[in-house]
């Protein structure tokens, strides 16, 4: 596939969304962040080692992992959403050319704009805004409101909405290769990973590593929130917890013997009720 063809696809997608967007330019001080779990596997490799070896952050169409809905295949939901949002620009594109997903951190969350998807995040450099498109709400909800760096009316819309704290992000789609050495300002990790293989792998990425204050919650404090995801997931949280405490490292240790869907629900409890807050 030629570079010219790849660029044409990207420009077609960006141009189509620009025609749907409205509002003032985005503040260049804001950052797009990409949340993920740093202690999971990507194509059989620890995700941070895979990032270090590839030097590029790929979408679900390549990695086949994620903490959202895994529908990144031809004809799947994510393929269909992208076809609609980008006017078919990527319908026949190789997986490596598909955009990667993050969120605009307009709320200045220290743990990234969309912690629903993981305890760590990549904070992207400001120039990536120019090749990003945005929507609100998440593309899974078939949104009708879109934005670009030049036309960002979504912040006012999101602030006026009344969604759950894990759903209040402005989704970003970053087009073109996302290289760690050129496009990433920092990898930001949860302090529960200090002194672990995750921390060792992070030092191989070639980008700065930072730490946010940390996700942490006592299981006993979750009892009043049983209806949030369900009592069965609170029961699972109690079994996973160490000394009655949950943090990202503890959840990661359970990933090899707990159903991923169930573990995701436990993570939602930790992310929702044990967050580190804003900057």
State the helix count.
11
Q: How many E-type strands?
A: 14
Q: What percentage of the residues does DSSP assign to strands (E)? A: 15-25%
Q: Structural class of the helices, strands and pairings?
A: alpha+beta
Query: What value does the average pLDDT take?
Result: 93
Task: Explain the overall architecture.
With 279 residues, the protein is α+β, with helices and mostly antiparallel strands. It folds into 2 domains: 3-210, no CATH class; 217-274. 32% of the residues lie in helices and 18% in strands. It contains 11 helices and 14 strands. The chain has helices spanning 3-20, 47-54, 60-63, 77-85, 154-160, 180-183, 197-202, 226-229, 231-240, 248-253, 260-273, and strands spanning 32-36, 41-42, 45-46, 56-57, 100-104, 120-124, 132-136, 145-148, 170-174, 178-179, 184-189, 209-211, 217-218, 245-246. The strands form 4 sheets. It has an 8-stranded mixed β-sheet, with helices on both faces. A two-stranded antiparallel sheet has the order 2-3. It has a two-stranded antiparallel ribbon with strand order 4-10. α9 (231-240) packs across α11. The chain is globular and about 55 Å long. The mean pLDDT is 93.
């Amino acid at each position: 596939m030629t570079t010219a063809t790849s660029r044409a696809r990207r420009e077609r997608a960006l141009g189509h969304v620009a025609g749907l967007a409205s509002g003032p330019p985005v503040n260049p001080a804001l950052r797009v962040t990409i949340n993920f779990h740093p202690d999971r596997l990507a194509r059989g490799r620890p995700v941070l080692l895979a990032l270090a070896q590839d030097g590029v952050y790929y979408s679900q169409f390549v990695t086949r992992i994620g903490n959202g809905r895994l529908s990144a295949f031809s004809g799947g939901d994510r393929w269909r959403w992208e076809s609609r949002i980008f006017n078919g620009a990527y319908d026949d594109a190789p997986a490596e050319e598909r955009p990667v997903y993050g969120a605009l951190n307009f709320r200045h969350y220290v743990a990234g704009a969309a912690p629903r998807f993981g305890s760590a995040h990549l904070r992207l450099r400001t120039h990536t805004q120019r090749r990003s498109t945005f929507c609100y709400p998440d593309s899974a909800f078939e949104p009708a409101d879109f934005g670009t760096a030049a036309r960002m009316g979504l912040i006012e819309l999101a602030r006026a909405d009344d969604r759950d704290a894990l759903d209040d992000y402005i989704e970003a789609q970053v087009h073109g290769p996302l290289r760690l050495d050129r496009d990433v300002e920092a990898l930001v990790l949860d302090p529960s990973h200090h002194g672990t293989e995750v921390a060792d792998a992070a030092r191989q990425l070639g980008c700065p590593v930072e730490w946010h204050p940390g996700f942490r919650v006592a299981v006993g404090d979750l009892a009043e929130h049983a209806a949030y995801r369900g009592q069965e997931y609170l029961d699972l949280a109690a079994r996973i917890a160490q000394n009655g405490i949950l943090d990202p490292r503890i959840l990661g240790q359970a990933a090899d013997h707990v159903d991923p869907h169930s573990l995701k629900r436990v993570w939602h409890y930790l992310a929702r009720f044990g967050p580190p807050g804003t900057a």
